[in-house]
Design brief:
It contains 19 helices and 16 strands. With 506 residues, it is of the alpha/beta class. The structure holds zinc ion.
Length: 506
């Protein structure tokens, strides 16, 4: 049966239910009615609230279909399963009972709207399609060197200046964009109707050049700078030694927290170039006052202090796994594991076993969707088991999975979706289904549910192109790497090196 993600348990019955495409359903939730073209209380397809320990139970018999769940979310999931079983047309659905529940509570995709901006309609399309595969969260990367995408009333220059850049990698074409508060409210409620929670990310203290372009006094030197128009690592970032930085961060938090009801709040914390910190008298003064032993501790100080600020708003912080490097990260923070080196894996595994920390599996290879199929194939994405390199005991610490889509090389909606689909669906399955993989079976089911993307006008890479043979894969890999080099700031390599700086130079 073409259901993706694969349900927990299916039992086949006798006969089939004759589904016709004009059949309405007996349900209350508007989102379910919209999936089936409207409501009819006398329909043989019924969605009913009732006691069950499962997320939902779906019973198909020749007489009709009964979906049961104790929650609205469960009923929606049952509707998605039923929609998949129809194949989008009149058909005979084999009699069966499906008992289903997710493996993880966090099943996410991420979209970077900073490197290239995408408007409300694109985001809604993404949410609408993700919901059809039982994703639970969309991680929204809203602030980076190349753009700040929200309106913060108390800091209006963030969108007035921070959302615009003079060009992209030398093309000389000004570009930008931001979401108004009303647009964010629209996105958040559209997602909530589909049981997807939006997790905002304000990346800090690195990747903040757009913020310091708007408010230079928040950087170490205080000198004016521009929103970055090249990619890679930038060293013009938030100063950690100036009190006004924490006041500004708090103002941002208070408004972002209000815009996004999710309890989760991503603080970034990745790829912090420490060049400016090493030369900054304020950073150096803080370093000495606190008796720090390396610049990593300066980052830990910043992160732990802003986590405290975030606590006021009742949020749980998530950070990229570099935040563990200092070994001092606040215990409340969850970690998103993305780097692929052995040392980080050991650190993340220890964070789970010794600190009881929650971890999101997001390993760059193979989960990053901006890479081509030639390096991150559908098969590789499908086959990754979240606890595979973290050790068997890690399962209890894994809160879920996430496939991020960075957009340095993606500026058009079509490309965006073709990078997301169908590979993200491998991650949707890992996040929902019980362990145990069968790639051929997955691909068969995948073919059967792609109509849900087609119906919504969402393009995807044909499944047969998702696992390129060796030579084609090699070509894709080389061309991706060359392009990445071409779009990176010439200073990026130096800034990258500066992440390893040990102590202040003043
Ligand atoms: Zn500083």
């Amino acid at each position: 049966m073409n259901i993706l993600p694969k349900p927990f348990r299916i039992e086949l019955g006798e006969g089939a239910f004759a589904y016709s495409a004009d059949m309405k359903v007996a349900a209350e939730l508007p989102v379910i009615l919209s999936l089936f073209g409207g409501g009819d209380p006398s329909s043989p397809i019924r969605f009913v609230k009732g006691d069950t320990e499962w997320d939902h139970v779906l019973k198909v018999s020749p007489e009709g279909v009964l979906a049961l769940s104790s929650t609205d979310e469960g009923l929606f999931h049952a509707a998605v399963t039923l929609k998949q079983l129809t194949g989008g047309k009149s058909t005979a659905i084999p009699a069966c009972t499906i008992w289903d529940k997710p493996r993880y509570t966090y099943r996410a995709g991420m979209i970077d709207v900073c490197r290239h901006f995408f408007g409300v309609e694109t985001i809604k399309k993404l949410i609408d399609t993700m919901a059809m595969f039982k994703f639970s969260h969309l991680h929204f990367h809203l602030s980076d060197d190349q753009g700040f995408r929200l309106c913060i009333d108390s800091m209006p220059k963030l969108h007035q200046i921070g959302s615009e850049r003079k060009g992209t990698c030398g093309d000389g074409r000004p570009t930008g964009g931001y979401y108004t508060k009303a647009q964010i409210a629209e996105i958040v409620s559209y997602a909530a109707e589909r049981y997807i929670e939006i997790v905002p990310e304000i990346d800090m203290p690195g990747h903040t050049r757009a913020i310091v372009a708007a408010y230079p006094e928040l950087s170490c030197s205080g000198k004016p700078t521009e929103v970055a128009s090249w990619f890679g690592i930038h060293s013009k970032i938030l100063c950690v030694g100036k009190e006004r930085v924490y006041e500004a961060v708090d103002r941002i938090f208070s408004e972002v927290a209000e815009m996004f009801p999710s309890e989760l709040f991503h603080l970034g914390g990745d790829e912090v170039a420490k060049l400016e910190w090493a030369k900054c008298p304020d950073c150096a003064a803080l370093y000495r006052k606190e008796g720090m032993k390396n610049l990593e501790e300066l980052q830990a100080y910043f992160t732990n202090r802003v986590i405290k600020l975030l606590e006021k708003y009742g949020k749980t912080p998530i950070l990229w796994n570099e935040a563990l490097n200092s070994e001092m990260l606040d215990k409340r923070a969850a970690v998103q594991y993305w780097t692929t080196d052995k040392k980080s894996a050991e650190r993340v595994a220890r964070a789970i076993s010794e600190e009881g920390r929650k971890v999101i599996m997001s390993r760059c290879a193979p989960y990053y969707l901006d890479y081509p199929c030639g390096t991150h194939s559908l098969k590789a994405m499908y086959e990754l088991e979240p606890d595979e390199e973290l050790g068997a005991s890690a399962e209890k610490g894994i809160m879920g999975v996430e496939c991020p889509l960075w957009t340095e090389q993606i500026s058009e909606e079509e490309e965006l979706f073709r990078h997301f689909y169908p590979r993200a669906l491998a991650v949707a399955e890992t996040g929902w289904s019980a362990p145990g993989k069968d790639y051929e079976d997955f691909k068969k089911r995948l073919q059967g549910v792609l109509f849900l993307l087609e119906e919504r006008g969402v393009p995807y890479i044909p499944v047969k192109e998702c696992d390129p043979a060796r030579f084609a894969a090699w070509r894709q890999k080389v061309s991706f790497a060359l392009r990445m080099q071409r779009v990176s700031d010439p200073m990026s390599a130096r800034n990258w090196q500066s992440m390893r700086l040990k102590e202040p130079k003043v």
